[in-house]
Amino acid sequence: MQSKPIDLVLFGAGGDLARRKLLPALMHLEFDELLPEKLRILALSREETNVENFMAGQKATLQAYLGEQRWSKALWEIFCQRVHYVRVEFTEVDQYEVLHQELDSASTSVFYFATPPSLFQGICENLSAARCLSQNSRVVLEKPIGRNFDNCKEVNQTVGEFFDEERIYRIDHYLGKETVQNLLALRFANRFINAQWDNTCIDHVQITVAETVGIDGRFSYYDQVGQLRDMLQNHLMQLLCLVAMEPPNTMTAADIRDEKVKVVRALRVIDETSVADHVVRGQYTSGWYQAEELTGYLELEDADNPQSDTETFVAVKAFIDNWRWAGVPFYVRTGKRMGEKVTEIVITYKTLAHNIFASHENAPNRLVIRLQPNEGIEMHMLSKQHGIEAGTALTPQTLDLNFLSASGIDRIPDAYERLFLDVFRADQSLFVGREEVEQSWLWCDRLISAWEHNRLKVKPYAAGTKGPAQSDLLIGRDGRSWHE
Ligand code: BG6
Prior knowledge:
Layout: E1 6-11, H1 16-31, E2 39-45, H2 51-66, H3 73-82, E3 83-87, H4 96-102, E4 108-113, H5 120-129, E5 138-141, H6 149-162, E6 168-170, H7 178-188, H8 191-194, E7 202-210, H9 219-222, H10 226-244, H11 253-266, H12 275-278, E8 279-285, E9 287-289, E10 292-294, E11 313-318, E12 330-335, E13 342-349, E14 366-372, E15 376-384, E16 394-402, H13 403-407, H14 415-424, H15 434-453, E17 459-462, H16 469-476
Parallel strand pairs: 1-2, 1-4, 2-3, 4-5, 5-6, 7-12, 8-17
Antiparallel strand pairs: 7-13, 8-11, 9-10, 11-12, 13-14, 14-15, 15-16
C-alpha cells in the first residue's frame, strides 16, 4: 500500500493482546502486502530491553499464529525491520521525551492504547505534555471503555480533550469479523431478506456467543467485571444493533452510528419489576470438555473470593420498542466454559397463516448466520420429499452457504487485520461512536442495578455444558427454545 508514512505507537506492546492478536494481525498484513509501505511500529513497554530481545520474545508465538504456510525467515526479517522498541513507564511524563524524539514529524501518528482504561487519561496528558500530539494524530482505544456509564463518559471526555471524535477509533473487534460485516451485506444488498426483516415476518431473534475458554489466570480482573460487562455491553450489543438497525443512508461511519445508537436508545429498560423474568445469570462449576476435566470458577487457582457472585454466563430477553421490532423478543446469551465455541444469530420467521400441507406441521423458516466457526449462512426451509410415493410429504432442508469454500480464499482474516487497515485508511465505519458506547452502558447499568436490588443470584452450570437450566426456561416460558 503506497501512502503517507505512519508511526503506529503501541502502548502495552508487551501484553497479552499484543502478543496474541495485534502483532499476528500486523504480520498477516505484511504477508498479504497490505501494510502501508512506510509504516513503522513503535512497540512501547516498561520493560528494560531492546528491539532484538523484544522481538525474540515474540517470535515463537508469531510463528505459531502465522502457520507453516505463511511463515518464512524472509517475512520475519522484513517485519522486524519495521519494529522499534521504546521503553516508557506510561505514568512517568519525563520518559515521553524519548518517544517524542523517536516520532517522525512527517508521519501520521496512530497511538494504540492496549492498556487498562484507567491509564488512558494519564497517557493522553503525558503525550500532550511531551509534544507528541499533532492535528493528524489518531488514537485507538481498546475495550472496555469504562466500567459503567459515568466512568465511560469520563474516559470519553478526557480522551476527547486531546483528540477530536473523528480521530478516535474505539475498537470492538467483533465489528472487524468478516461475517459481521457480511451481516450488513446480507441485510442491505438483498431485497428478499430486507423486505421481510420486521415484526410482520419475524417471530424472534436469538444471538448466542458461547465460548469454551474459562477465566483461568485472570480471576482478579474478571471477578470485578463478569460476562455482562465483558461481552454483552459491547460485542453482543453491537451484533444486536447490526441486526436491528434501520438501513443507513450511506455506509459512512456517521450514518451507520446514527442508526445503531437509535437501536440502543429504543431498548426497553429492564428494571426491578422485570429483571427476574428477563435475565438469567450463571456461574460455571467443575465439569468436562471432551476428555479434559475442568475446574469450576470458584476453585480456580487464583480465585480469592470463595463467595463470588460474578456471572460467567448471562441470558437476557430484550425488546426494542420501535416500529419495526415491536413485540419481537431478542434472546441473547453468552457464557464462558460452554460446551462448544459458537457465535451465531438465528432469525426465526413466523409460521404461515394457513398450512395447506396436512402431512406436515407448520414449521417456521430459520435463517442462521454463523459468525464463528464455519462462517456462513444457513436457511432452514421445507421442501417436498423426492419421489412419486412421497406424495406431498415435506421434509426440512438446509440451504448452506459456507463463506470460506465459496470465496476461494485460504483463510478468513482475523478481525484485527481489517481494523488495523481501516485505522490506517482513516475509515471509522467499523468503530464504535461515543454515544453508542455511553448509551449501551446506561442500559446495562440499569439492568445491573435491578439485579443487585433484587439479589438475582447466579445459577450454577457444569463447565462444558450449555449454561444453567434456567436459561432454557427463560425462552421456554414463551413456547420457544434455543437453537442448538
Ligand atoms: C474479549 C473478551 O473482548 O472477547 C474475552 O474480553 C473474550 O473475555 C473475547 O474471550 C472473545 O473474542 P472471540 O473473538 O474469541 O470471540
